[in-house]
């Protein structure tokens, strides 16, 4: 109806601010053009206010709008990240895909949407902090990080698998809870569709995981002393990384 039109226009504007497909065109390019710390802010902190607005007004938003934009975001988030070699662009498409899952469930269960958004913030923050510590901008950078900081490289690999949504890591919780809620709401076809669509994203996560931990750089030094400046590490990185990996047992039933 005409009364719903202003609310739907507002919702579309907020979703553009979040970077949801097909209103996502600004996000990968902007994220590619900024530094990793700024990218962390853009991917996490900048999305809190728009998401809070969406959750508070979820009862007024059209269901078809959230489902269509959410499903499109999951598809674009997976499809767009497949051919990328720049880690910031990959994280941009990863963000689009995750927000698609969150928006799909928004109308059905706003509390679940908020919970999944918190998990998204945790995992994305962990990934960006790891990339900042490793100073990785491209796939080639992350493939040579094993000789510099092997422990964090291993954790980064696990965070990638968590972002992919593989059990028993934290990232499995959003997909599990959203799928269960959709089935409970008799939207089994929608649940199956987004699960199949998320396989596209799984491909590039697994490719990154393979490059990170299962390949060795040809330039690995054989000497005990490495001619590199010491890497600075922060306790907050370790804490966030742990949360991004082991929160699954603490998810609500």
Walk me through this protein's architecture.
With 253 residues, the chain is mostly helical. It has helices spanning 5-18, 26-32, 36-43, 45-56, 63-82, 87-104, 110-134, 139-143, 150-164, 172-184, 188-213, 235-246. Helix 1 packs antiparallel against helix 4 (45-56), helix 2 packs antiparallel against helix 6 and helix 4 packs antiparallel against helix 7. It is globular.
Please state the CA-atom Rg, rounded to the nearest Å. Answer: 19 Å
Characterize the quaternary organization of these chains. single chain
Helix and strand pattern: HHHHHHHHHHHH
Q: What does the largest sheet look like? A: none
How many helix segments? 12
Which regions have little confidence, pLDDT < 50, spanning 5+ residues? none
Taken together, the total number of domains comes to 1
How much strand? under 5%
Give the strand tally. Answer: 0
GO molecular function, one term: NADH dehydrogenase (ubiquinone) activity
Protein name: NADH-ubiquinone oxidoreductase chain 2
EC number: 7.1.1.2
Enzyme class: translocase
Sum this structure up briefly.
With 253 residues, the protein is an all-alpha fold. The chain is 69% helix and 0% strand. Helix 9 (150-164) runs antiparallel to helix 11 (188-213).
Write the layout of secondary structure elements.
Blueprint: H1 5-18, H2 26-32, H3 36-43, H4 45-56, H5 63-82, H6 87-104, H7 110-134, H8 139-143, H9 150-164, H10 172-184, H11 188-213, H12 235-246
Helix pairs in contact: 1-4, 2-6, 3-7, 4-7, 5-6, 5-11, 6-7, 6-11, 7-9, 7-10, 7-12, 9-11, 10-11
